[in-house]
Amino acid sequence: MAEKPVNKSAAPRSNVRVIGWCLGSVAGMFAFGFALVPLYDVFCDITGINGKTSGRYESTEISAADMDRTIKVQFLAQNGPGMPWIFRPVDRSVEVHPGEPTTINFYAENPTGLDMVGQAVPSLSPSEGTLYFHKTECFCFNQQPLAAGQNTEMPLVFIVDPDLPDYITKLTLSYTLYDQGEPQAALKNTTINDNG
Amino acid sequence: MSAVAGTHAQDQHHGPARGFSRWLLTTNHKDIGTMYLIFSFTMFLIGGSMAMVIRAELFQPGLQIVQPEFFNQMTTMHGLLMVFGAVMPAFVGLANWMIPLMIGAPDMALPRMNNWSFWLLPCAFLILLSTLFMSGGGPNFGWTFYAPLSTTYGPPSTTFFIFAIHIAGVSSIMGAINVIATVLNMRAPGMTLMKMPMFVWTWLITAFLLIAVMPVLAGVLTMMLMDINFGTSFFNAAGGGDPVLFQHVFWFFGHPEVYIMILPAFGAISQIIPTFARKKLFGYSSMVYAVGAIALLSFLVWAHHMFTVGVPVAGQLFFMYATLLIAVPTGVKVFNWVATMFRGSLTFETPMLFAIAFVILFSIGGFSGLMLAIAPADFQYHDTYFVVGHFHYVLVPGAIFGIFASAYYWLPKWTGRMYDETLGKTHFWLSFIGMNLAFFPMHFLGLAGMPRRIPDYALQFADFNMVSSIGAFMFGSTQLLFLFIVVKCARSGEKAPARPWEGAEGLEWEIPSPAPYHTFTTPPDVK
To answer: Where are the domains of chain A?
Structure first.
């Protein structure tokens, strides 16, 4: 290795440069792996695939309800692993006209002896309908604290977009409720909807 | 031949050191190549014995030998050891031994790093194997370690698993950088890129794939580590993450990874078939471009592993067509191998037998891959034994037979002695029959609906499973014969000439057998 290669045809190339390029690519691809996380979220948000419904909808124009069409919207509720709450929709399904705001409620009860916090995560199917399902108010936007033995009804206000493709006649919205552990001091003081 | 004359003089005062420190401290590409190959074969036997446990449990329906928890650890560790411990290091070993000899270089470009990248591997796999003895057992979530199975529900040893695969990944990346630097900077004068042997070409492209995807694997492992230990929620839906994201990132690594495991075998087969057909490789430049095309396409097809997670129709169509497109360059390669053999003066020594079996059986694996690529059909095949049959058909007669063919082909150069041809052919035929018996019935089992990764199954799957297990025992025990053949060859084989194969061409056959400790200290002339 010490002796210089007797290289007549090509100019000798530097190993340091090759290593530099390779290590640069390695660092770049490592960063790309992490960049996939926000890229994936943005991609899902734009295309609506994966059933990820977007955040709070703020309508800029009031579109007239399309009274000719009726869409059946079904609601599912389930608990994440280890979540002991009772969680169900008050109405299992509702028929709506596209464009009209509808309010429905979900019932949640904390039957344990501990103060807890829950977080609901929505998913819509078929995923082609995701972009046309707008939530103007949803309990899933915030964490939901419930004291021991407390119960509550949590509201959801939604509008089905009149642009919903014709072949979709039924939408299913599913919520999974996850245990977020014990409430922190700040959350404890802001208990909402105390029905119990 | 001036290179050889110079070598002898140098050998006397600069031979290898003695004892263990020779192997611990060596920077010689031949020593390191040998260590890689021995390490890889050790992992092959350990991973293989885990496969024997799996097949013994599946010999009959019902739970007989192991508990389901241990069965899951066996399937997971079998996959991890074979992919990261056996196949990848075997090809790095072949690269270390052969690339400098093939391009007329005195050694790899970065010998010190070469030593380091080898010695990381035993550390990584000792850590990985030690997880089997930890409380809660070793990894049990499949070699694909899908979150949240591996994060929320993984055993406590998962952090050790992450660390082990991280180290193995670092080793692969260093090996790849070494190959790139060697091939780009160390070629003998006159060895232009388009004169390089196919094995060197395929390894150069493989090295670029490794550089591109191993860091992504490191990324996904790091995200897992953070989810498990630092309270992040990359893959945890409760915290706003998404388990499907894991599959996207994993398969962005995982699909190029399967080409990392097969492209060097393509290269070795492209060396062996022309030798025993006594003809030049048909369509050399189309072979190079086909490998490049396969490597590029491999980045665009990852979601065909996850059609059933709810990919939208447009996405399914894109990934389906992109996957089917890979059949085109692969078909070019298979066509060229067959055309090389067409009207050649064929002889059927052991390397050639493995090479021909490679072409036929890899094509079968390719065809079942096409079936799986068709999105609507995949909904039936997904996570069944059909998938197991498919990827064992591409990895066993693909990667493993490619490695066996290379080992028999270059053994005379490595040891200076010929292996026993009769035993070699016995090894081939027992492996060929055993492998087909083991994996072909898996296709039928999968089509009939038997799911993957289960320790017990419904009664109607019993017969094919028994056939499959018998084939697996046959294939597994035959590999001990290979160990015997190699030891016998190295100790008492007949002396091999510099060019033991009549039709062999290339710089590696210009030097004596066994290859002297230092070769090409002055670059050879390339015509």
So the answer is: 18-47, 71-188
Q: How far apart are CA B158 and CA B140, in angstroms?
A: 9
* Beta bridge mates, A173: A75, A124
Cα–Cα distance between B384 and A25 in angstroms, integer? 37
Report DSSP state, residue B516: P
A4, A7, A15, A131: best mutation site toward chain B, by most B Cβ within 10 Å?
A15
Class of the CATH domain delimited by A71-188: mainly beta
ipTM score of the complex? 0.87
Torsion-angle region of A72 (φ positive above 0: left; ψ -120 to 50: alpha; else: beta): beta
| Partner A contacted by B283 (CB < 8 A) | no
Q: Which of B216, B240, B242 sits opposite A29 (nearest CB)?
A: B216
What's the CATH fold of domain B32-250?
Cytochrome C Oxidase; Chain A (1.20.210)
B521 in contact with chain A, both atoms CB, cutoff 8 A: yes
Q: How far does Cα A142 stand from its chain's mean position?
A: 12
Closest by Cβ to B237, choosing from A9, A23, A176: A176
A29 at B interface, C-beta within 8 A: yes
pLDDT digits (tens, 9 = 90+) for B3-14: 444 444 444 456
DSSP strands (E only) in B375-445? none
CA B269 to chain centre: 14
pTM attached to this predicted model: 0.88
Strands A170-179, A71-79: pairing is: parallel
